[in-house]
Amino acid sequence: MHKLLGILLIVLSGSTLGSQCAAILKRRVRALEAIIKMLDSLELKINTFSTPLDEFFDCYKDELLESCGFLQEVRENGFSCALKSNADEMYLTEDDVRLLSEFADDSLHFSAAEQARRCHYYKCECQKLADQAKESLPLYTRLLGSLGIMSGILASVLII
Q1: pLDDT for res 150
Q2: pTM of the model
Q3: DSSP helix/strand/coil, 133
């Protein structure tokens, strides 16, 4: 009876681990969507009011970007530093960070019209990354859930 209960607990912990890994992928998609929304708002503010970047970030609010500390870091140390220090917490991949670092490095040296154009370009590129992540999300969710359960079963078999 104790072995059966132990096996059940191991299988459940394995499936929970798989579910937790799938949740991380979902958080990445939400972070990318929040960044896309921010870039869209920035493009609009630049086109409409020629808003400087520091003024935009002082006023911009987003629950997800606030909760991970990204916006606070942007206000204190700039976009590049915020991106590097919060990438892990936002579950961004190296490709995500590389793309957004290009935006941060490039956008300071141009006119308002060129900044707005670059916002649009990087927003579209981020949208592509988010769409790819959303597309693969169901597959990875099933895969990680199955791997968690299978690793739990394997651990149970090894114990017996």
Answers
A1: 83
A2: 0.86
A3: helix
